[in-house]
Design goal:
Layout lengths: L1 H4 L2 H10 L3 H18 L9 E4 L4 E4 L3 E2 L13 H13 L4 E3 L8 H10 L7 E6 L1 E3 L7 E4 L3 H15 L4 E6 L8 H13 L3 E7 L3 H10 L2 E7 L11 H8 L2 E5 L31 H6 L1 H14 L3 H12 L12 H8 L8 H12 L10 H4 L5
Parallel strand pairs: 3-4, 4-5, 5-8, 8-9, 9-10, 10-11
Antiparallel strand pairs: 1-2, 6-7
Helix pairs in contact: 2-3, 4-5, 6-7, 7-8, 8-9, 11-12, 11-14
């Protein structure tokens, strides 16, 4: 009975209900999950993972926030998006990803407002590195990772996110005109000033990661990674494992394709950037259905969805991988969270690996001008 007191109000209620040995035993089995339910609002029920060796603990699944304001058609209605963000916190997600360029500015403002009641309980990552168009127009003019610009971006992000320190500050894309050592040095200065807690890189190549890490330890690297985009496996993942750096796959559901909810006949809004991606032409989508069918086959056996299998596969790759699927819908958020409960056996993983290796994904993931900005 003393043990039950450790479970707070749940435990006290159990003590009142009954004291017979068999009843006590049953109650003990029930007490732990009920205690977890009490603390849903601060994420106690979600599995946790460490990103890198710098004590950055986050939920096993994060939330990519870009699509709420930018890229995937019209921006979501503000209050509705705030509700989804807060529902994510209530369901245990503690890791949120945004960037200055998403909007620009509007996504950081949304995330800052939605998560302001949860300061100290969530980790917010944002990014620098683009030269934005004037007057807040969508898009960018080029790259800009000059140290003075990095510090200007940090000041703006701090205000929009309503925080005293940015939890994780990524270089959004490597700037070939600014040595990565200068970039790492600028972020190091911000860390020493207490304005940034952790340094990250996005879509950087292995050599750049090593050079940056030598100046300021890199906590996490973010790159596209999923069953249909496996480029990081060539060099990046082994480099991260060697250096003790976490990995954050964005677009872990293939920009929605791996959910199984689209086919060659799916139409996108005219402002949806998937219209510009070679992998999303009707012909490519038709050819790539084989990968969705594979996920569906495994999902049926596991009583899960294709999206949950795609996320569970990523989670099974390394314990320091934290995918950040995005969504604007509560139902999809809950579906994604359900992936953390899907257990893929070694046989399942071998089957997925063997079958997917026989499927040639059609279409480049980005147009050439954007792909040239990655892997530097």
């Amino acid at each position: 009975m003393t043990y039950l007191l450790n479970f707070g109000e749940s435990g006290k209620n159990f003590i009142k209900i009954g004291k017979r040995p068999k009843v006590q035993e049953a109650m003990l089995r029930l007490a732990a999950p009920l205690r977890q339910t009490e603390f849903r609002s601060i994420g106690e029920t979600m599995q946790k993972r460490e990103l890198g060796n710098n004590n950055l603990e986050v939920s096993a699944l994060g939330l990519g926030c870009m699509g709420m304001s930018f890229s995937y058609g019209p921006a979501g209605e503000k209050q509705e998006m705030i509700s989804v963000l807060r529902a994510a916190v209530e369901r245990g997600i503690t890791f949120y990803d945004t960037a200055e360029v998403y909007g620009p500015f509007t996504n950081e403002e949304l995330v800052g407002e939605a998560l302001s009641p949860f300061r100290g309980k969530v980790v917010i990552a944002t990014k620098f590195g683009f030269k934005l168009k004037p007057n807040g127009e969508p898009g960018w003019l080029g790259l800009d990772s000059r140290p003075e610009h990095i510090k200007q971006v940090a000041e703006g992000s701090l205000k929009r996110l309503k925080v005293v320190a940015i939890d994780l500050f990524y270089q959004h894309r490597v700037d070939p005109d600014v040595p990565i050592e200068e970039v790492a040095g600028a972020v190091k200065d911000l860390i020493q000033e207490g304005k940034v807690k952790h340094f990250g890189l996005s879509e950087a190549g292995a050599k750049t990661i090593r050079r940056a890490h030598a100046v300021q330890p890199v906590t996490a690297v973010q790159s596209e990674y999923s069953l249909w985009t496996r480029g990081p496996e060539a060099e990046v993942l082994t480099t991260l494992e060697e250096l003790g750096i976490g990995f954050v796959p964005y677009s872990p559901l293939g920009k929605g394709f791996l959910t199984g909810k689209m086919n060659e006949n799916t139409k996108f809004d005219s402002s949806d950037f998937r219209n510009t991606l070679p992998r999303f032409t009707p012909e490519a989508r038709k050819a790539n259905q084989a990968l969705v069918e594979l996920l569906g086959k495994i999902a049926q056996r596991k009583k899960a969805t294709p999206a949950q299998i795609a996320l569970a596969w990523l989670l099974a790759q390394k314990p320091w991988i934290v995918p950040i699927p995005g969504t604007t819908k509560l139902g999809r958020l809950e579906e994604n969270i359900g992936a953390t409960a899907v257990e893929l056996t070694s046989d399942d993983l071998r089957e997925i690996e063997s079958a997917s290796s026989k499927i040639k994904v059609q279409g480049a993931r980005y147009p050439e001008n954007i792909e040239r900005m990655t892997g530097l």
